[in-house]
Design a protein that fits this description.
Layout (H helix, E strand, L loop, with lengths): L1 E2 L7 E7 L5 E8 L3 H19 L6 H14 L7 E9 L4 E7 L5 E3 L5 E3 L19 E4 L5 E5 L1 H4 L11 H11 L5 H16 L8 E7 L6
Antiparallel strand pairs: 1-10, 2-3, 3-4, 4-5, 5-8, 6-7, 6-9, 9-10
Length: 217
């Protein structure tokens, strides 16, 4: 789900398979608002897909190239946070590379939620030569990874209070009871909007769920 706070937004997401069966996904958030942020978002998304699909290129090398290319002609001094993951469906291995983005959450079939704490680095276009590390985690069958932008973690109620981390976790725990993956995402978004209580969203909201199916599921 991607819902812009304004007519145009700076959030992005993408997902695509590799020929060997691995699945690549990414979620990002461009600094700034309006048309300039939207244009930089479109460039970031297109460039990311092109470089991530390049054969025989590691995840860390691809992100380094994305960073260098976006930094090269960045007259408006924009930056973009980016979380990129590659899931190996056969064994649940999860390769992650984080550039200044929110750590993803993982929820299992019982509703237990954990945070994948990543070392990562600064947003893209902040340090052109930063060596972003590739960090390896693992999803167990039936577990779901939730990647999101700060439209979720910094949602605001009418009184200005923020959607705190413990509220995010509680919302995800409740949403995990949905019978489908799409239902989980929709319920999580519904709870955010309920918290905002009709107020104008403070930022674009993007939520992506990636589930490793149980064997035979």
């Amino acid at each position: 789900v991607l819902q812009s706070a304004k007519t145009v937004g700076g959030d992005l997401y993408d997902a695509f398979p590799f020929d060997d069966g691995r699945v690549c996904f990414l979620v990002g958030d461009v600094t700034g608002k309006g048309v300039p942020a939207s244009l930089f978002m479109a460039l970031s998304k297109a460039l990311s897909r092109s470089l991530l699909m390049r054969p025989n290129t590691s995840l860390s090398a691809a992100v380094a190239e994305i960073n260098a290319e976006l930094s090269r002609d960045n007259r408006q001094a924009m930056a973009v946070s980016l979380l990129v993951g590659v899931l190996h469906p056969g064994d649940g291995r999860l390769d992650l590379c984080c550039a200044g983005h929110e750590n993803p959450l993982v929820v299992d079939a019982t509703g237990a939620v954990r945070e994948l704490k990543l070392d990562g680095g600064p947003p893209l276009c902040v340090a052109e030569d930063f060596p972003y590390p590739e960090e390896i985690h693992r999803l167990a069958p039936g577990e779901t990874l939730i990647a999101f932008t700060d439209g979720l973690s910094e949602a605001q109620a009418p009184d200005g209070s923020l959607f705190r981390r413990e509220q995010v976790v509680a919302a995800l725990r409740a949403a995990s009871k949905a019978p489908t993956l799409g239902g989980l995402v929709d319920e999580l978004v519904r709870q955010v909007r309920a918290f905002e209580a009709g107020g104008e969203p403070s930022d674009d909201l993007t939520v992506m769920a990636v589930r490793l199916r149980p064997i035979g599921g």
